[in-house]
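[recover] target loaded
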């Protein structure tokens, strides 16, 4: 029985790795992470088209407000309150959790974990969306990434 669960989990990870290409470049100070979605993704209040986005904490003082920018950080798409969420074991990769809302609807972004952290950010949705979210299938996606410091970013365009 446990082997079947492993195969299912591995199959889901492979399938959604194809669905969601997460190329994450991270900056430790503000947890800046570049994530590329191959399909539209719903965030609280809007749907982001497929593309590359920068996720970062709004400030070091408030660890639970996340900002989402376009790839070159010239357009701010959202500033979102989040709540702390925990995981059992940190990974060295960016991890996001998506809710499958069914055919014809974009997956919903539920959680974002910065590499190496046990505490992440869970996005806050309306009460109606939270009810629907409880019925959706959740998938956790692990991304490969490379870490960049602020000095590496100077002139690099990342």
């Amino acid at each position: 029985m446990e082997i079947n669960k492993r195969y299912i989990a591995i199959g889901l990870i492979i399938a959604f790795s194809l669905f969601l290409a997460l190329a994450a470049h991270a900056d430790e100070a503000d947890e800046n992470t570049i994530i590329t979605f191959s399909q539209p993704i719903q965030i609280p209040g809007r749907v982001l088209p497929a593309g590359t986005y920068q996720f970062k904490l709004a400030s070091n003082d408030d660890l639970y407000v996340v900002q989402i920018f376009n790839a070159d950080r010239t357009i701010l798409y959202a500033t979102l309150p989040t709540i702390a969420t925990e995981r059992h074991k940190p990974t060295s990769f960016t991890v996001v959790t998506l809710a499958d809302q069914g055919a014809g609807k974009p997956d919903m972004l539920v959680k974002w974990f910065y590499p190496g952290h046990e505490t992440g950010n869970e996005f806050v949705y309306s009460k109606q969306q939270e009810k629907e979210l409880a019925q959706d299938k959740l998938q956790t996606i692990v991304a490969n990434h490379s870490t960049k410091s602020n000095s590496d970013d100077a002139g690099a365009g990342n």
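[recover] notes: Residues 2-148 form one domain.
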